[in-house]
Each structure stands twice: as C-alpha cells, then as structure tokens.
Automatic annotation (TrEMBL):
Residues 1-29 form the signal peptide. The keyword Ligase does not apply. Residues 126-135 have a biased composition (Basic and acidic residues). Residues 111-124 have a biased composition (Polar residues). Residues 84-135 are annotated as: Disordered. Keywords: Signal. This is Transporter. It comes from the Bacteria. It comes from Oleiagrimonas citrea.
Length: 449
C-alpha cells in the first residue's frame, strides 16, 4: 500500500513538472502551489486548475492559428482572382495584427448570395464600376460620364391618327341641323433615323450631338365631298428631309450619395436645319360654287419648326438596388423669327414674324437591372406646349388658336448588351392624350469605344 501511494505521488509530481514546462512562466506562477503543505483534496483541486489553465492556453493558440489560416486563404483567393483577370489593380488584404479578426473578402457567389448596392455611377465605397445594364439605363435616361465616345444609331416609328367633325350650317327649331356635315381624318406615319454622338469630356462634362432624318407619309380624308354626306375624298402626301439638329452639354452638379440622387444639368441648342412649315403652299382639291375651299392638302411635309431653340433641363437618378429611380424636368424657349410668307395660299404672300410658345417637359420612371446585360424601364413623359403668336408685317401680335398642346406618353423599354461595346435598346410608347402619337416604337444601337 505504501509503495502504491509513493508511485501515485511520483506520477502527480511528474505531471506537474511537465505542465510547468509547457505553460508560460506567469501562468505557472499563478497555478503553482506548494505541495508539501497541501492535503490530498487540495492537491486534486490544484491539478484541475492546472489542467484548465493548460486548456485555455491551447484554445488561445488554436484561435490564433485559425485566424492566420483564414488570412492566408483570403490572400491566396485574391491572388488567384487577379491572375484569372476577374479583378484589376485590387490590393491584397493586409495581414491583421495578432488578436484582430481577419478582413472579409467579398466574392461572387459567396455564402450570403448578396451583392453590394451600387449608386448611379456604380460606387460602393470603393472604385467599382456599375453593371453594364445599369450604365445602359443611365445612358438613355440620364447621362454616363465614364464613357469616352459613344455613337448611336436609332430608328423610330410613330403613328398619329386624328379625326375631326365639322358642321357648316345652323340648327332649326333647336333640333334640326341645316347645312353640311364633314368628317375630316388625318393619319400620319413617320419614320425617323437619328444619329447621336456622345463624348465624355471629363468626369463631370459630356457633349452630345443629335441629327435626325425624317420620312413622313400623311393621309388626308374628308367626308361630305361635293356636298354629299356619303362621298369621301382622300389624298396622300409624302416627304422626307433632315430634321432639326441639336447640340447639348451635360454637367454633373451633385454626385449620388446615400441621401441624395445623382443630379445632372443639361443645356442644349436646337438649330433650324429642318424644313419649316411656314409658307408651304396648299393644293386645292375641291371648291364650292362660291370659291370656298372645301378640301386642300399641303404640297410638302415639314420636318422642323424653323426656330432656334434653347433647352434647359435637370435630370436625377437614385439607385435603390435592384431598382433605379429617375426623373427629369425641362423648358425650351424658341427665338422669334421673320418669314417671307405665313400664308398657305399659293396666290398670295403674307410676310410676318412667328413666336412659338414655351415647351415644358416633365418625366419620371423606374428601371430594373435583371442581370449584367438586361434591364427593363417604365416611364411617363409629359410635354406641354404654350400657344404660338404671329405678327403680320405692320400689324400686332395675335395668338394662334389651336397651337397649344398637351402630349403625354407611357413608355416601356428594354436594354440588352449584345457584346462588350454594343447595346440593343428597344422602347414602346403609348399616347395618353389626343396630341400625343398613338404609338411609337424605337430601336437604338449605341456603340461604345
């Protein structure tokens, strides 16, 4: 019995010695206790405290090794991504100090399945670019400043149909109409080719040039021809010519932040390069016995308004991943101009001056970037024209009745990136007011260098 006790005591002494060699001096100083004055239960409690101290030391070392392994794994993955071309000029994560958590490295397809929210220009707090679909939406609805040169070819079809009932007579006994009833119908199909060039001067300035070319076919129909309510006359007029070209500049006033949208100011000038509508002779197709003109059509189709026009607008974009909200407001003012003839009668000349009314525009919408290539946009645009005025030579200014208008449209567009440089943009517009085209369909192909 005495021998067994001596052996057990010797084993405990050796265990304490080995723990003393493994632990730091401070830890051993805290856990060491004199053994010659301790009873057997006290010695067992001291051994438990020693083992617990050793376990805590091993856990601390293990946690430090895990942090080092994670840091090393993050550096290896970042280096592999750089070599594979998935990142450019991204610095490797710095090694954390001992006891500090390692830096998190965001990777596509990580366990969270989320991506960082980008603002209108793609900023996530780092120098990261927005997705291609977001840039394409901004190019169409706002402005993109990091594209050096973009050339855009577009084709737009617009359909316009307007009917008007004309009563030429009087009511007898407040119930019977005596006179002529004529139904007039104007149908217009317009095909517009538009060439646009957009050049980024700096991170805050872009320069834009738009040159349209219009081809138009207009069908004029008139009921009650020859005084008969059952007779209908029809005449078609074709025409094509360059439209009014415009030059504009975009200036980014306020970049997007977490609390405000990206705000861009646009100033532009439209030149009267198209064929103006003033003085175009009408061809008389039908006259009454008293030489009253019942049916006449223009000899050619206008493609511009004939005025120098200054445009000023503000557009804003706010990114709320995955939606992009955008809006715009603007005004256009035309300078007055003299013309040699304001009358449509080929037998007379009526010179004078024309002052078009201001044009006010308002719009807004939302776009959704489905993926890197595809996006969908829904928008509403409203255009209000004030009345125009004319002043015959030597006379006073007179307002032109019916020259004001209100054109509101609802638009739905889809953009799709064909390749690294080319994008396909499609837009469908539906007229909401009588002055707006019934339907418009646009296809644009911008090419970015």
């Amino acid at each position: 019995m005495i021998g067994n006790r001596n052996k057990a005591r010797l084993g405990r002494t050796l265990l304490a010695a080995s723990i003393a060699l493994a632990l730091p001096a401070g830890a051993w100083a805290q856990t060491a206790a004199p053994t010659n004055t301790m009873s057997a239960p006290e010695k067992e409690q001291a051994e438990v405290r020693t083992l617990m101290a050793q376990l805590q030391a091993l856990k601390a070392g293990y946690a430090d090794q895990v942090r080092r392994l994670r840091d090393l794994d993050a550096q290896v993955q970042a280096l592999e991504a750089r070599l594979a071309g998935r990142t450019t000029n991204q610095p490797l994560p710095a090694r954390p100090a001992p006891g500090q958590p390692p830096q998190q490295v965001a990777r596509t397809g990580d366990a969270s399945g989320t991506q960082p929210i980008r603002n209108a220009q793609g900023s996530t707090g780092e120098d990261a670019k927005p997705s291609r679909s977001v840039e394409d939406v901004l190019q169409q609805e706002h402005a993109v400043f990091d594209r050096k040169l973009t050339l855009e070819n577009g084709l737009t079809y617009a359909r316009y149909d307007r009917k008007q009932l004309t009563l030429n007579g009087f009511l007898a006994l407040d119930a019977i109409f005596l006179g002529n009833i004529a139904v007039e119908n104007v149908e217009s199909d317009t095909l517009t080719y538009n060439f646009a060039a957009r050049y980024g001067l700096s991170p805050r300035w872009t320069l834009n040039l738009d040159v349209p070319y219009l081809a138009r076919r207009t069908t004029y129909q008139k009921g009650g021809a020859g005084g008969s309510a059952a007779a209908t006359a029809e005449q078609k007029v074709f025409g094509s010519h360059i439209g009014d070209a415009s030059l504009s500049v975009n200036y980014r006033m306020l970049p997007e932040t977490a609390s405000r949208p990206d705000t861009v100011l646009t100033f532009g000038v439209t030149a009267p390069t198209g064929r103006h509508p003033y003085g175009i002779d009408w061809r008389v197709l039908e006259r009454d016995n008293d030489q009253f003109v019942r049916f006449a059509v223009p000899s050619e189709q206008p493609t511009g308004n004939g005025m120098w026009t200054a445009n000023l607008g503000v557009s804003m974009v706010k990114t709320l991943d995955p939606a992009i909200l955008f809006g715009n407001i603007g005004i256009a003012h035309s300078l007055s101009r003299d013309f040699n003839d304001l009358d449509n009668n080929p037998d007379t000349l009526n010179p004078g001056r024309v002052q078009l009314g201001n044009v006010y525009t308002l719009g807004g919408g939302v776009a959704f970037a489905f993926n890197e290539r595809t996006s969908l946009s829904l928008s509403f645009n409203d255009r209000i024209n004030a009345k125009a005025r004319v002043r015959p030579r030597g006379g006073d200014w007179n307002s032109v009745i019916g020259s004001d208008g209100h054109a509101a449209t609802f638009n739905m567009g889809v953009t799709y990136a064909l390749n690294q440089h080319t994008t396909l943009v499609s837009l469908l517009g539906i007229g909401l007011t009588p002055d707006a085209p019934d339907v418009t369909l646009s296809v644009k192909i911008p090419y970015t260098f």
